[in-house]
């Protein structure tokens, strides 16, 4: 935080003031319950967090900053965990299967994945605020793309993945196929999509583009 006590563009999630963390958790809970970020009120946030309304303005200038900060906080928490979980997997194929398994789960982590993809594709003022917070230098090591880059680089070093493909393309390849499967999972009931087939094709699509066939 700065000298005024306001929360900066990015704060280490392990060093957040307890009341800020309480507000972030309250926002995340409301979003998971289906609340529209535009309709969330500061008074609702502070009431759910168990603190006084005036406390919010000790740390933030607006409701938008609180909600955007909460989303960035959740993304950081989930991808911190995800990075550690991916490191425990034996190889690239196991890592991709693990990511697909996580997308299937009906919990906050899947919602976080979906919210992140939406924020990256949407050009609303609120999404731009979230992206601005994510692009600060301190956040970059925990950026979801950084987590995937580390996973992919290790795949290259193990000889599993093709060395000639630019890293940026490899990251977008994985993201795009995961997004296809995520959309299939969330809309399968409406369009009668065979999600098992979509999963198989998403998985195979990643391998077809990225695997080094000479080492298989």
SSE blueprint and pairings:
Layout: H1 18-32, H2 42-49, H3 53-59, H4 63-87, H5 92-104, H6 108-121, H7 125-134, H8 144-157, H9 167-191, H10 195-210
Helix pairs in contact: 1-2, 1-4, 4-6, 4-7, 4-8, 5-9, 5-10, 8-9, 9-10
Structure in words:
By secondary structure, the chain is mainly alpha-helical. Helix content is 68%, strand content 0%. The protein has helices spanning 18-32, 42-49, 53-59, 63-87, 92-104, 108-121, 125-134, 144-157, 167-191, 195-210.
Biggest beta sheet summary: none
Tell me, rounded to a whole number, the average pLDDT. Answer: 83
Give helix % range.
55-70%
Low-confidence stretches: none
**Structural category:** mainly alpha
In one word, what is the shape?
Answer: globular
Report Rg: 19 Å
Question: In DSSP terms, counting alpha (H) and pi (I) runs of 4 or more, how many helices?
Answer: 10
**What percent of residues are in strands?**
under 5%
Features:
single chain; 216 residues; mainly alpha; 10 helices; 68% helix; 0% strand
Summarize the structure.
68% of the residues lie in helices and 0% in strands. With 216 residues, it is an all-alpha fold.
